[in-house]
Specification:
The protein is α+β, with helices and mostly antiparallel strands and 129 residues long. The chain is built from three helices and nine strands. The longest helix is centred in the first third of the chain and has 10 residues, at 14-23.
Length: 129
């Protein structure tokens, strides 16, 4: 089974985005901070079933800034939890999709995923009954 675990959104105004998502009931996991490697400010929010990272770029030469300039605000990256990640990777390879990383933790670059970076992690084990 595949599950959406996290979502990264590129936004123009992080305070405005925070007002929206906190108004919808998301809670901050951490405070607003700078991420120099991404050239952006970010904050992480949590709902019952998903984590949302908001990114406000200030450097147009880094991936979030390039994304904002080319496409505007929107979904920048997804993290999926999948059962049998190695088998999923093999299936994608048969379909000519490039996956990078180890057999268990890998990603599909935006060029192969409709402009979205997709990170793949193993699904958490089912709880014992």
């Amino acid at each position: 089974m595949t599950r959406l675990a996290a979502l990264a959104l590129v936004v123009r105004n992080i305070e405005r985005a925070l007002a929206l998502y906190e108004g919808l009931g998301f809670e901050r996991v951490e405070e607003l901070s700078e991420v120099p490697s991404l050239g952006a400010r970010h904050v992480v929010l949590r709902a019952d079933n998903c984590v949302v990272e908001l990114l406000e770029p200030h450097d147009e030469t880094k991936p979030p800034g390039l994304f904002l300039r080319a496409r505007g605000e929107g979904v920048f990256a997804l993290e999926l939890r999948v059962s049998e990640p190695a088998a999923r990777r093999e299936a994608l390879a048969r379909g000519f999709v490039q996956a990078r990383g180890s057999d268990e933790s890998w990603y599909v670059p935006p060029s192969d995923a409709q402009g979205v970076l997709i990170r793949i992690e193993p699904a958490e084990p089912e709880p014992a009954e």
